[in-house]
Amino acid sequence: MSMTPVEDAVRLKITEALKPSTLEIYNDSAKHAHHKAMQGSVSRETHFRVSITSEAFTSKMQPARHRMVYALLKEELDREGGIHALQLKTRTPDEEEKQVAREKAEQGEPIAEIEQDRG
C-alpha cells in the first residue's frame, strides 16, 4: 500500500485525462497541520499545490481549466480526510515556454543559442 494514496490518485487522474507535458505535485499538508480546521484529521494529504502544463487547456480561461481539474479530483475533494486545499497553476505548453523565456531574460540568461556558420 502506498504511503501517499491521495497524491498517487491525483497524479494518475491528471496524467490520464490531461496528458500533461509537465506535472508537479507538492504536498504542503505538514505546513497546515496546526490549523484549527485540521485538528482531529489523521490524513497527511490535505493540502496540495499542483502545476500542470497541458494542451488540454488551450483556448480555455483559468476558471474553466480549474473546473476541469476539480471535476477530475471530485472524489478526493469530497471524501472525509481528503483534499482540504488545492492550489492550481494551469498553463499550456506555449504559455510555459513564454514564461521560461521571460524568467531567463529577467535573470540575464540568453533566451536562445544562435549557431553561427564558421565555414
Summarize the model shown:
With 119 residues, this protein is α+β, with helices and mostly antiparallel strands.
Portion of residues in helices? Answer: 40-55%
Secondary structure tally, helices: 5
Strand order of the largest sheet: 1-2-3
Work out the number of β strands.
Answer: 3
Strand content: 15-25%
Structural shape: globular
Sequence stretches where pLDDT stays below 50 over 5 or more residues: none
Our measurement of the CA-to-CA distance between the termini, rounded to an integer number of angstroms, reads 60 Å
Strand/helix succession? HEHEHHEH
Mean pLDDT: 84
Alpha-beta content class: alpha+beta
Tell me the major beta sheet: 3 strands, mixed
Radius of gyration: 18 Å
Question: What keywords describe this structure?
Answer:
119 residues, alpha+beta, 5 helices
Task: Tell me what you see in this structure.
- Helix content is 40%, strand content 17%.
- The protein has 119 residues and is α+β, with helices and mostly antiparallel strands.
- A three-stranded mixed beta sheet has the order 1-2-3.
- The mean pLDDT is 84.
Q: What's the layout of helices and strands?
A:
Elements: H1 5-18, E1 22-27, H2 29-32, E2 47-53, H3 62-72, H4 74-78, E3 85-91, H5 93-106
Parallel strand pairs: 2-3
Antiparallel strand pairs: 1-2
